[in-house]
From TrEMBL:
Transmembrane segments: none annotated. This is Molybdopterin synthase sulfur carrier subunit. InterPro entries: Beta-grasp_dom_sf, Mopterin_synth/thiamin_S_b, Sulfur_Carrier/Prot_Modifier, ThiS/MoaD-like. It comes from the Bacteria. It holds the Pfam family ThiS.
Length: 91
């Protein structure tokens, strides 16, 4: 099973007690669909529309940005970790 790592601020908003969620997914897109179905309050934070990430979120499969791979179609090997990383602002 893949593990999705959720940012701390989002865990509170979605009522997720732990930072890691397990899901069965063949692609990163499958994992994202599972995430927004299981936690619909996260959908506007992750998806601009079905199949398209919002511009301020990056997803990493292990150490690789999925934009450098095959995007949401990137295959998720068993026991992989998908990290959701929202942009940070400030100065």
């Amino acid at each position: 099973m893949a593990v999705i790592v959720i940012p701390a601020a989002w865990r509170t908003a979605a009522g997720i007690p732990h930072g890691k969620l397990e899901c069965a997914a063949e692609t990163v897109g499958d994992a994202v669909e599972w995430l927004v179905t299981a936690h619909p309050e996260l959908e506007p934070r992750v998806l601009a529309e079905p199949g398209r990430l919002v511009s301020w979120v990056s997803l990493y499969l292990g150490a690789d940005d999925i934009r450098d791979l095959d995007g949401l179609n990137t295959t998720v090997p068993p026991e992989s970790e998908i990290v959701v990383l929202p942009a940070l602002a400030g100065g």
